[in-house]
Design goal:
Blueprint lengths: L54 E6 L3 H13 L2 E6 L2 H10 L4 E5 L1 E2 L2 E2 L3 H7 L6 E5 L3 H7 L5 E3 L4 H13 L9
Parallel strand pairs: 1-2, 1-3, 3-6, 6-7
Antiparallel strand pairs: 4-5
Helix pairs in contact: 1-5
Length: about 180
C-alpha cells in the first residue's frame, strides 16, 4: 500500500484566486466643465455584474481515486476544491484560508480525521463538514452531531445530498451549549 504524494493539490492561481477580496466599484459623478453645479446626480447603469468568489471546499482523503471523485462532485456543485491526504496538510490550508466546506475521511495515515470535529467545535466554528469513511458504525455515529456522515463505499448521489445538507444546515451545530 503506497501513500499518495505529499502535500495538498492546489488549483492554479490559489490562494490569490480563492481568497481575492471582492472588487469594490465606486460610482462617481463625471466632472466636466459643462455640467452645472446644481445638476441632478445620476448613477450610471452598471456595466458588468460583480461575481461572488467561488465557494472553497477542502477534501481530506488519503485515497487519490476517492479524493478525485469527491472533488469532481464538489466542482459540479460550484466549489473550488483543494485536496490533501494528511491532517497536517489540512492544517496548513486552514492557516491560509478557511473553506466553506470540509469533506473529511476518518481513517488517515497520520491520525483520526474524526478528531477534526473537536477543532470544528473549538477553532473553526461554523464550517460545515461531511465525514466520509469506512470506519465502524459506532465511530460514524459519534460524528453525526457534527454533520452528515457518509459510509464508504458511497453512491455519488448520497455524497451530493450530504454536501447540500451540510451547506444548508445550521452553521452553529459545533458550538457547545
Amino acid at each position: 500500500m503506497g501513500f499518495p504524494e505529499v502535500g495538498p493539490k492546489v488549483p492554479v492561481g490559489w490562494p490569490e484566486v480563492a481568497i481575492a477580496p471582492p472588487v469594490l466599484r465606486r460610482d462617481t459623478r463625471p466632472m466636466t466643465a459643462t455640467t452645472p453645479a446644481d445638476a441632478p446626480f445620476t448613477t450610471p447603469a452598471p456595466t458588468a455584474e460583480v461575481e461572488a468568489p467561488p465557494l472553497r471546499a477542502y477534501v481530506l482523503e488519503d485515497d487519490q481515486d476517492i479524493a478525485s471523485l469527491e472533488a469532481d462532485i464538489l466542482r459540479d456543485l460550484g466549489f473550488t476544491v483543494v485536496t490533501c491526504a494528511r491532517i497536517v496538510d489540512l492544517g496548513d490550508l486552514m492557516a491560509v484560508a478557511l473553506p466553506h466546506l470540509l469533506v473529511v475521511d476518518v481513517m488517515l495515515p497520520d491520525g483520526d480525521g474524526g478528531d477534526i470535529a473537536e477543532l470544528l467545535r473549538e477553532a473553526w466554528q461554523g464550517i460545515p463538514a461531511i465525514f466520509v469513511s469506512a470506519a465502524s458504525r459506532g465511530r460514524l455515529a459519534e460524528l453525526e452531531s457534527y454533520g452528515p456522515v457518509v459510509a464508504k463505499p458511497f453512491d455519488v448521489e448520497e455524497l451530493r445530498s450530504a454536501v447540500l445538507a451540510a451547506v444548508d444546515g445550521p452553521t452553529d451545530r459545533w458550538r457547545q451549549e
